[in-house]
């Protein structure tokens, strides 16, 4: 598999894991990296901080153990520097959610700006910047007020 496809799979794997509510496995994607939230100027580094951030901020529903979301990743632009074993990507995300209290709808949309590095184990995240562009009803998804 070529580098761009491996990196694209990392983007999709992240979405799959958050929608499953598997924050432990999601955090492993950042075992050598960090997540930066520019809206709050906050950085979460490594497995423990990333997992704790998702557990403290994302509502999981007891009947499914998931956030009842679907993260859709689109418009991925991936640039690979094969000689330096690094890459970057820009992609859009849209999160849909449906709960007993909320009919199916888009609740947030934005952009991920990611940096990757290749090691002997393959490609991994070095940094993810999460940019928010459009907000809907996040009351059934987040455990904090994103706007406050």
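Q: What amino acid sequence fits the structure above?
A:
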């Amino acid at each position: 598999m070529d580098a761009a496809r491996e990196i694209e799979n990392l983007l999709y794997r992240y979405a799959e894991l958050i929608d499953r509510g598997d924050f432990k496995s999601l955090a492993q994607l950042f075992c050598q990296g960090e997540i930066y939230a520019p809206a709050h100027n906050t950085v979460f580094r490594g497995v423990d901080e990333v997992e704790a951030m998702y557990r403290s901020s994302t509502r999981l529903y007891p009947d499914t153990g998931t956030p009842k979301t679907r993260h859709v990743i689109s418009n991925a632009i991936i640039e690979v520097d094969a000689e330096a074993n690094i890459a970057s990507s820009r992609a859009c995300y849209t999160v849909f959610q449906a709960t007993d209290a909320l009919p199916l709808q888009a609740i947030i949309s934005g952009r991920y700006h990611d940096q990757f590095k290749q090691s002997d184990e393959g490609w991994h995240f070095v940094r993810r910047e999460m940019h928010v562009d459009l907000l809907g009803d996040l009351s059934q998804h987040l455990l904090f007020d994103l706007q406050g």
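Q: And what stands out in the fold?
A: The radius of gyration is 15 Å.
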